[in-house]
């Protein structure tokens, strides 16, 4: 039943919940978690994480994942092995049984107490942000600054957003309502009705390599806040950030009087293919996934017993028509292409540029001039190795590096800007590269599909009108997480907006300052639309949370 | 874009929209449409409908459905042929092309104007309620009074609820928001963001035989209000109520300046199997369906390109433990079993009764006494043919009659109360029957699956505790649209509530007056839960509407 159960955690977090609910509606900037590392004390070195045993006291544990790579232990993209051990459940049934047993107590807590417990989990994660930042850095290859922010406070923002969104949806109906229907001269009919949000069942989070917390927290916390136990199946290369998350969640749950098995880690040994096994289990009623389109589509096709929320791959396009701030545009574009070596699902890939060049505040610029100027902007941004490494991070896996080498050889098209190896002082084994620019002509070349990593294509088009149609087609056919355009023409702007509404992709227009197309802010921007093949859902709208629970009504006559 | 476009229909219906939004949150009794036939002038005779040509001026029409039965024309369960003609599209592609062409204009209208147009459609349907009542009566077999109310104002209530629910969800995000992020001593980052609800695509409504409007309007109006064109594929035996609906919708759309092809009728000639063809079309992104579990499950399994909302079949259980109002309980139960000859997805089927009898305000009653008293209550309620016909209506199809005859022969178990043929003055060919009661013993008999129609099972159980567990199991395994219980024990009540929350079915407790377990009221009761196999969705919560559109964001720097 959804009566409010008094609890110290509710008192502690009611103000945050209220402020977050207001922020969700207003969509102005809002965050509960400072994004500056200065707010969190000393950074945490990798050495403090290495060699840990995160056994979590989980049921069904019959062995370890890690610490060595041959047992599934992680290796930092910056070089060192992490050497951390995680629990391994030889029989996943033990995890499902534990989740089933944990469910009734968590379901009975009701939306408010669940929200408060979730906010406490996030608060404790927040307090340990330096540790999470280092864990994210050394599993994803993100540079320290980005790993801290995106993997720490910004991921926590997205988690809180999901908690609050789920709370709001679960409380749309009053817990109790009276119903009085007039009957003319006779006494009215009177009923009293109670509405209870009931969880759907066990949820499965399948984590990704590049943003284990940022992309993992929305699904994890939405499911949790809606009363569902969650099995967390991390990406084999990025276990630590989610294992730490599970550890904190289990600690808070137990302290608050719930079974810690409401949240369980399902780490796997090499070659186990555990995600498929778990996803098809009849207990699993919700799956959240971020990763390749291939496996995302497999989940959508096969995990039929579950609601499946996927964020897959797409091809992000920028239409460049004209600009009133040429320098600002180039700087903004260069940053967007360089950030985390383009290893974001939101990084622009195809830049569509009129063959005849464009009008700018610095006069007409030819196609060749724009390419050269963009190259110079990238060189300026990334000329200094230390600064470059702080922006680029490390290449996350050998596949990305291999594609970059192919680009360098001209296999994708004319190499306009060659990538450069960047040295990282503390990590001599880190593989860090500046982005490559490849030139294509739409009159001659087929546009590439997703090419994840630091390779962008500058595509000569006949006209802006053609670019807009290409944007529309690419979004429809390949999917896209983001789109952007630069134009000073109201007419072109309207056409681009129309194409984006039609194809279902969100649009950033004329960004020339410190906001980038690849970044979205919780409580304000939606991440993805769910309206094109790149994702079937968005962080975080009502559709992302409203089906994670169902409402059961109990009605009685009122006399 | 979602700017508000001034329109006379908005002025006309803003007050209704606002009142309905308030009602949706409060869940008290509320309706925009009087339920008394007296509010609507003279009844409409069947003869005024017979022989009509409802051609709708639709694209792609190359022939007729009807008027004769061999061309798909309907025959009233009360006897007469309807002899109405509908348009037939030989190539459904013509309908899809028309829907595609109609979509952009409807999408551009925005949530508010769409809601206003939908409310105008409902208002015109409402004004013609007597005509809709007669159309529903002579396609479903509902008695005149019920056909008028359930097929008219109550269906309109559910339609309006869906409109308003979709409007509320589409406007959760502001149309425009400013975002200002402080940057310490530097100027803040500022963006302006616009959020636009974009429709998902063409929707398909697959209508049912017994409640074409009541079960059809939620999906139809939810999809429509969210900007999706809708193909309406009625049940071959109940075309007229939805064809009239489509006619009104097309008229209002055209008058309001939209393409009438936002709503299209897809009637079929005999043996065409059109629902399957339409449901698998790649344009179809939403399917709403009410009907058999077999076809509902087929849709869920095969219409993979679409969101599929189904209401299928289940087995509704009543646990009878004890009562403080024995007479009221019997009267309420008798009415619930008799109404529309049990041909409701919400009719109780299995009455679980302790073998040892029960405690009542009239003392202890043995199992046999309760069965006899329930039989007497049914006899009293249905003893007079005219009154009985007014409650029972007609048997909707030969399959129901056949099952009843099997029950009469004892094929389902011991016949406790035999059905009786009821004569209907104006319709000598109408097949009208009182309900059968069949006795089973849980110690001996397997409980039956869904047995749609006027057959209920009184099941002897060892104990109330066993009954509660049986309720839980039946809901989980067979699904259920409703559950009910009678008890004076707080402990039993808690156990039943717990079982219903756990298995995911809504519960009516101790109904002894004029509210019945089979009836739900829009704006207050949810119909179904979506949490058990009988349905994957509910009328009408956020989950029913929130995925029928997606949100696209456009953001710009604000200077």
TrEMBL record, chains A, B:
Keyword Kinase: no
Domain of life, source organism: Bacteria
InterPro entries attached to this UniProt entry: Ald_DH/histidinol_DH, Ald_DH_C, Ald_DH_N, Aldehyde_DH_dom, PaaN_2, Proline_metab_enzyme
Stored Gene3D superfamilies: Aldehyde Dehydrogenase, Chain A, domain 1, Aldehyde Dehydrogenase, Chain A, domain 2
Keyword terms of this UniProt record: NAD, Oxidoreductase
Domain Aldehyde dehydrogenase: 91-491
Location of region: Disordered: 58-80
Record-linked Pfam families: Aldedh (PF00171)
Entry protein name: Phenylacetic acid degradation protein PaaN
Source organism: Streptacidiphilus cavernicola
